[in-house]
Amino acid sequence: MPNIYQQCSRCIMDTTVPGITFDAQGECNFCALHDKMDRACPLGKLASGTCRTWRPI
Ligand SMILES: [Zn+2]
């Protein structure tokens, strides 16, 4: 567990979340993952069923 309290600058996640890390901008790894998936498969495409590569974590 990290011993320095930090909260993500974008979402409500903080250092109480297991496995969380923060980048230089103070954003958590979950936000980074969201961005990565959103680039790979934007929600609009997913909703319309055109994205076949997206898988839930
Ligand atoms: Zn976050």
TrEMBL record:
<protein>
    <submittedName>
        <fullName>Uncharacterized protein</fullName>
    </submittedName>
</protein>
